[in-house]
Each structure stands twice: as C-alpha cells, then as structure tokens.
Amino acid sequence: MSRIASTFAQLKAQGRKALIPFITAGDPHPSMAVPLMHALVAGGADVIELGVPFSDPMADGPVIQRASERALAQGVSLRQVFDFVMEFRNTNNSTPVVLMGYANPIEAMGVEHFADVAKSAGVDGVLVVDYPPEEAQALVKLLDARALDTIFLLSPTTRDARLKQVGKLGRGYLYYVSLKGVTGAGNIDTVEVAQRVNHIKKFTSLPVGVGFGIRDAASAKRVAQVADAVVIGSRLVQEIIDAGSDAPTRVQALLAGIRSAMDDADARINA
C-alpha cells in the first residue's frame, strides 16, 4: 500500500479527514523549502502538495503565480525540487509528498527519467495540471510501474464521460476544483460542493479532496464535512510572504488552527 493510500486508510479508521496544504517549492527562498515542509507536518498536514515552479502556471491565481516567479528568479528547477524532497525524507519517511505542476518541465526532463528520479527522491504522487486523462495513459503506466500515484483534477464542469476515465486512471485521491476559475478566487459553495462530491463518488472508490476557495478555518471546517480531504494553497502562500523569515512558525500556527477546526467538524459528524 502506498503512503497516500495508507494515510487515507488510517484517517478513515479514525473518522478524520485529510488536510493537504500546498506550497511552491523554493518560495520565498530555496533555503526555506524543507523547513516549511516540516512546519506543515507539525501544523497537521497529512499530505503535502509541493508546487513545481513554472513560468506559465495557467491554473494558478496571482498569489501562486508570483510565488513561481520568485522561485524561478532564484534558479529553482525541477531537479532542485527533487533535492528538497530527498532532504525532507532524511527525517520524515511517513508524510506523503505530491508534486503538483505542469507538463513542460516533465517533458523537458523526459517522462521516464522524471518517473525514475521521482521514485528515488521519495515522491509519492504526481499531479500534472495540463495532462488530461486522454493524454496521460503513458504517464500513468510509468508511474504505476514505480508505485507512484497519478492524481487528477476535476472541475464543476467535468462531464460523466471524463469522470469515468479519471475513475479508471486516477490513483491516490482525486482533486476536485470547487470553483470555475484559478486558485485563490471566489467563495466556496459547500452545498454545491457536497452535491458534486457525491456525484464524483459514483465513478470512483478513491478519496475526493476539495481545493480552491478555502481561505480559513471556517471554510476548511465546512468542506471537511462533505469531502475526504481539504486542500489549501493560496492562503498559505500569502502567509509565507507576509511572514518573511518567520514563515515556518506562522505557517505552522495557521495550519494548526485549520486542523483543529477540521477535527472539530469530524468529531461532530462521528458523535
């Protein structure tokens, strides 16, 4: 069983939902990448989504776009992101790490070589925004051979035909984008999310995480009541920038508050 599957199984047995924070690797400085990953775990992260900096992050709003720009300006590459994961694994061999990014850096490295390096670095899953299921079969095959999970995005406009494809190809968990837009945009409609998550579950046995539009403990708590996981990114990235050198401490505290609210929601559901 993969680290991702094991994590979700343990949480399910405990009656809890997964907290999946996203940060951009190497922002605000490469030296803070690994300390921030450890701070996320200390704050209650169950899975870490580590963003690979890219020059044209089409699905990301201004906050994460600027994070990619800052990391790229400091020379952070896909290979260095692997180095961050390897360093993290020196002292944490249990928290799953998912690389989230775009196809271009992977294609430039070579998909098979990327899969090999990801496995050796200690990566658990890969989410490629611009690899739709129709074009991802080769990637899934390569990652499956290395026991790595391919994670797919779903949106409010995803049709049933594609849900069936993703249900077959997806591994680890599915990431439901709750808004029609980019990261950090809009306010989340929990009733609509609940309806959509229930519909998605007709096509898969995988856990369904929800992201985009989750800004604080209150919104995370609401989403935790209707989904298997809560994904939060833009708010954390903004906190990192606002905090400066104090970012690990501030991020840990912010995430701990979100984790506490989610656990309170889980306790109410299981009462």
Indicate the topology.
Elements: H1 3-14, E1 18-24, H2 33-43, E2 48-51, H3 62-73, H4 78-89, E3 97-101, H5 103-109, H6 111-121, E4 125-128, H7 137-145, E5 149-151, E6 153-154, H8 160-169, E7 174-177, H9 190-200, E8 208-211, H10 217-224, E9 229-232, H11 234-243, H12 247-270
Parallel strand pairs: 1-2, 1-9, 2-3, 3-4, 4-5, 6-7, 7-8, 8-9
Helix pairs in contact: 2-4, 2-12, 4-6, 10-12, 11-12
Please tell me about this protein's structure.
With 271 residues, the chain is an alpha/beta fold. The chain has a single domain (3-264), classed as TIM Barrel, CATH 3.20.20. The chain has helices at 3-14, 33-43, 62-73, 78-89, 103-109, 111-121, 137-145, 160-169, 190-200, 217-224, 234-243, 247-270, and strands at 18-24, 48-51, 97-101, 125-128, 149-151, 153-154, 174-177, 208-211, 229-232. It has a nine-stranded parallel sheet. Helix 4 (78-89) runs parallel beside helix 6 (111-121) and helix 11 packs antiparallel against helix 12 (247-270). The longest helix is centred in the last third of the chain and has 24 residues, at 247-270. It is globular, with a radius of gyration of 17 Å. Residues 181-185 have low confidence and may be disordered.
